[in-house]
Prior knowledge:
mainly alpha
Amino acid sequence: MYVKVSLAALALAAAPAFANDQLAGSVGVDAGSFTTSQLAQLKSALEGDDQNIASFIKAGGSEVISTQSGISAGHAQLAQSLGLDANEYSVSELARIKSIRDSDEG
């Protein structure tokens, strides 16, 4: 009984390391160089063909990546559709303005 419990404990302890190795292998990097979070973000970036994020993570960038700076294409498009400057309004504000305008026209 003790042997079975010991083997089960050993298998559970090795599972995260194996998963990390497998994830690292799937994105072509060394598992010991990245956290599980970074590996997951890297995999997501590569699957989404986002080479900027992938390069950032591979270069040792922080696993916390801000998406708050700059204007995304969607943000700019929404602002343009409303005749507003994307630099002066957040996406939330633009969405609220669009909602108000749509309800007034309906």
